[in-house]
């Protein structure tokens, strides 16, 4: 942990790469747009394992689950008066609620909402592209956040990482 004033870390964690500065919903919106374009341009719909109505219904449920998870995270962060922005400076760790089970419930909520919305809209190509924004999270955004949190909170955050998995 640094002895420097809050928010003035010496580590590389203080400089957000452009993939981190571009908010995560933008990553998913770009994948959604590309998936919609592919579905229209290629006219090669992916085979549907069940009637479209059931896929749309399931998608709505999955999207609602993702939205509920996101709202619960926003409420926790508001109560703790800390930032939800990956490039922001956290003032405290949030370790309760869904954070007891996953270190990244907001990103899990984004994945669920994205997949649910795509299914509800019948954009199966966009569902197939979910690895693209997930990789941006996994390779750039989350490691940046973890380095920043480790620099700010040290052993307390390290212990949390040892107890709670990154995803599920």
UniProtKB/TrEMBL annotation:
InterPro entries in the record: Metal_cation-efflux_comp (IPR052527), Phopholipid_MeTrfase (IPR007318)
What UniProt keywords are attached to this protein's entry? Membrane, Methyltransferase, Transferase, Transmembrane, Transmembrane helix
Membrane topology per record: Multi-pass membrane protein
Tell me the domain of life: Bacteria
Give the EC number(s) listed in the UniProt record: 2.1.1.100, 2.1.1.334
Localization, per the record, is: Endomembrane system
Can you name one GO molecular function term for this protein? protein C-terminal S-isoprenylcysteine carboxyl O-methyltransferase activity
Q: Could you give one GO CC term from the UniProt record?
A: endomembrane system
Pfam families given in the database record: PEMT (PF04191)
Q: Which GO terms describe its biological process?
A: methylation
**Gene3D superfamilies on file:** 1.20.120.1630
User: Quick one: where is this thing mainly located?
Assistant: membrane
Q: Does the keyword Membrane apply?
A: yes
Which top EC class applies here? transferase
Q: Where are the transmembrane segments?
A: 18-38, 58-78, 107-130
| Official protein name in the record | Isoprenylcysteine carboxylmethyltransferase family protein
Which species is listed as the source? Xanthomonas oryzae pv. leersiae
